[in-house]
């Protein structure tokens, strides 16, 4: 009997139109098919009316490819980007509230300085730090603070962009979905143009 391959993390970005329930539809799709979403970040893009969702999905390569194909079929999906196919830059943010004593205050602050974390709140018995970086840096920072006593943490989840200009990015990185997500916008534009003729 062969051992199962361990689950790997895959980083996927999805460009979507800003429409009600689009996030719900995507997460429900993942849930129904048993895909494990380990983190999720959502934010506006440079294009008005378009948001970017970044998922960290756990599973085999085949599972992730199935997830991409299913997401592409949803309405309002503009583009799916598989960051595992090309070099990318990623970051996440964490807030860490650490217990301090007069004896540990200096050491805790020194560790934070080594990680370029900054203090965002000061209490009598705790300091709250903000740190940004890739997943490895954030995990290492939390582990360095753990022996002092972590009271609370909050991680945003990863966000990512493929390195280079869009012209440099191979076409296989972008998955063109089977969706008419942009058609409503095109129809609205055509209607306005026709209206202007009369």
List the helices and strands and how they pair.
Elements: E1 8-17, H1 22-32, E2 36-44, E3 50-59, H2 61-72, E4 77-82, E5 88-99, H3 105-114, E6 118-122, E7 126-133, H4 135-145, E8 150-155, E9 159-162, E10 174-175, H5 183-197
Antiparallel strand pairs: 1-3, 1-4, 2-3, 4-10, 5-7, 5-8, 5-9, 6-7
Keywords: Amino-acid biosynthesis, Branched-chain amino acid biosynthesis, Transferase
InterPro entries: Acetalactate_synth_ssu (IPR004789), Acetolactate_synth/TF_NikR_C (IPR027271), Acetolactate_synth_ssu_C (IPR019455), ACT-like_dom_sf (IPR045865), ACT_dom (IPR002912), AHAS_ACT (IPR039557), AHAS_small-like_ACT (IPR054480)
Pathway: Amino-acid biosynthesis; L-isoleucine biosynthesis; L-isoleucine from 2-oxobutanoate: step 1/4; Amino-acid biosynthesis; L-valine biosynthesis; L-valine from pyruvate: step 1/4
């Amino acid at each position: 009997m062969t051992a199962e391959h361990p689950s790997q993390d895959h980083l996927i970005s999805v460009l979507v139109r800003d429409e009600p329930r689009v996030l719900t539809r995507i997460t429900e799709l993942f849930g129904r098919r048993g895909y494990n979403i380990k983190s999720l970040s959502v934010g506006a893009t440079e294009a008005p009316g378009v948001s970017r969702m970044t998922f960290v999905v756990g599973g085999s390569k085949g599972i992730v490819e199935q997830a991409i194909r299913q997401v592409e079929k949803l309405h309002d999906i503009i583009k799916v980007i598989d960051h595992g196919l090309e070099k990318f830059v990623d970051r996440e943010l964490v807030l860490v509230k650490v217990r301090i004593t007069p004896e540990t205050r200096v050491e805790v602050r020194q560790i934070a300085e080594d990680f370029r974390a900054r203090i965002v709140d000061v209490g009598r018995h705790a300091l709250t730090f903000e740190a940004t970086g890739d997943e490895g840096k954030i995990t290492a920072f939390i582990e360095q603070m753990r022996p002092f006593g972590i009271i609370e943490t909050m991680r945003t989840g990863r966000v990512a962009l493929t390195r280079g200009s869009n012209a440099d990015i191979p076409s296989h990185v972008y998955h063109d979905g089977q969706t008419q997500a942009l058609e409503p916008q095109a129809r609205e534009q055509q209607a306005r143009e026709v209206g202007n003729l009369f």
